[in-house]
Amino acid sequence: MTYNSIEVMPVWNWNKIHETGDLKYLVIADNYKDIEGQNNEETANIWLDLYQQYIDEFGINNNFKRFMQKKQQLAAKIAEYIASGDKFKLNKINILEIDIKGMVDEKEPQKFGEVVAGVEKFFGFQIDSKALTVQKYYNYIKYIESNVKAHGQAGKK
Amino acid sequence: MAKQVKNSDLVEGQLWQPTIKETEALIKVLDQLEQQFKDVSKASSQAAKKADVGSAKGIKTVNEELEKQKRVKSELSKVDKQREAAEGRLRIAQSKQKKPLK
After folding, report:
1. B63 touches chain A (CB under 8 A)
2. Is residue A6 part of a domain?
3. Contact B73/A55, CB-based, under 8 Å?
4. How many domains does chain A have?
5. CA neighbor of A46 nearest in space, from A69, A72, A66, A28
6. pTM for the whole thing?
7. B45 and A52: CB-CB below 8 Å?
8. Which domain holds residue A81?
9. Which of A55, A84, B2, B61 is most exposed, with the fewest beta carbons within 10 Å of its own?
10. Binary contact (A75, B72; C-beta < 8 A)
11. Looking at B2-6, B23-27, B48-52, which range is the least confident one?
């Protein structure tokens, strides 16, 4: 059996999949050591569905959208180069690749454990990431973000 | 009776004929391969362009199609090098074919 909803899936599993790309963490289990690889079409679709649930609930930020749009532009530019063989297009490809790499570096994500620690500090209670659901976790993050925006000094709380 | 040796048999060019034929065939295959890569790239580019980056499926599509484009670009570069080498071989074989035996 696998997790099929972000209302039920623990954020620990969600994070493990992001960290490792291993879809065995979709399986509902206490221990993952003995679970064999689960990356197949079925689990890929389940993961895609969970990701869509996350997007529907929390949206996609503009930076990430721009990042994906740059990737679309890069794909189009490579296709133009392939079709024409025009080596001048390689310059544009290089520029786009540098832009994309720059966006990834800028967006260097905080480590999961650090974010959890920040959430615990903010709310003043401990979090069990194996029990906390994805939905609840991101609601906490969302609340902190809106609080920071509103007061501009959440870190001092 | 032994086969009579004709003057044309003594022309080195005859020796190069199989090489020329094989190399021309190879270039033809490489041309077809290049066209297939171009077709794949065009379809892939359209799929990436159409994808909605506001959806999980769209994000997956863009990532996959971009990787495909990079692979095609790299494979095409190998094909180009093979063609360059083949065309070089063909030029040499054609020039040798024209020269009579010394």
Report:
1. yes
2. no
3. no
4. 3
5. A28
6. 0.78
7. no
8. 62-106
9. B2
10. no
11. B2-6
